[in-house]
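Batch manifest line 193
LIGAND: PRP
JOB: complex structure
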Amino acid sequence: MQALVDAIREQGEILPGGILKVDGLVNHQLLPHLTREMGETFARHFAPLNPNKIVTIEVSGIAPAIATAMVLGVPMVYARKKKPVTMKEPAFTAQSVSRTKGGVVDLYVSSEFLGADDRVVVIDDFLASGGTLRALAGMIDVSGAQLLGIGCVVEKQFESGREKLADLNVPIHTLANIIRMSEAAGIEVEAGR
Ligand SMILES: O=P(O)(O)OC[C@H]1O[C@H](OP(=O)(O)OP(=O)(O)O)[C@H](O)[C@@H]1O
Ligand SMILES: O=c1[nH]c(=O)c2nc[nH]c2[nH]1
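JOB STATUS: finished
ARTIFACT:
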């Protein structure tokens, strides 16, 4: 997605620990025209798989996920990181490591909104080590739903998440790919794959 690649070139910043800051378009401020194009692009890509649900993780996955779900005309469910009293049991749960806040986070999805009838495409903001998507894929599996594909806005190729998730045997589509980044060389970014 060229507009996303251009925006990352313009606004992206490298932070310690191999973190790419794109708060101006993905993780704090959202640009509606870019978010809409993300949704349209994911929807075009995954529509042939005929999903009936989009699943993501709060918080930064919600915007691209709802943009995709709106185009496909299907519900979007997000894994919550704190279980509210309203959540109906049983809930599927898993743990992942937050890359931007540190520490282990719990993920919860109620069986009220995910189950054996669901054909799921997962949409998230970042594919880095793949740990978060691995945790979510485990919950989807336990629920009995079928995982059809994974879409991420930004892939950090140098963290090899795509390779680590290969055993899931589902297509992974990303919109921008960070090949490498360093203070010396800057951010090397190309269209996703
Ligand atoms: O492939 P991984 O190494 O697991 O990294 C990707 C995950 O890291 C971020 O979550 P984080 O909890 O940092 O942020 P968020 O609250 O902004 O969604 C991001 O939203 C992805 O879910
Ligand atoms: O804002 C972010 N920048 C990153 O580099 C990253 N990697 C995983 N999750 C991330 N979130």
